[in-house]
Specification:
Layout (H helix, E strand, L loop, with lengths): L19 H7 L7 H16 L4
């Protein structure tokens, strides 16, 4: 299957970010594991798209 026309080269590469500088300045720390956060976002989007009953 070919990628959609709007896909960019960066869409096909993994991205790793060192957020330590941001965390050092802001004091922010993740409180939810990434896998749970992704599941929560997907569930929220699915609820918004579900037809009203």
């Amino acid at each position: 299957m070919a990628p959609p026309e709007y896909a960019e080269t960066g869409d096909f590469h993994d991205l790793r970010v060192d957020s330590s500088a941001f965390r050092d300045v802001t004091g922010w720390r993740p409180e939810v594991p990434l896998s749970r956060a992704v599941d929560d976002v997907v569930a929220a989007v699915a609820r918004r798209r579900a037809p009203a009953r």
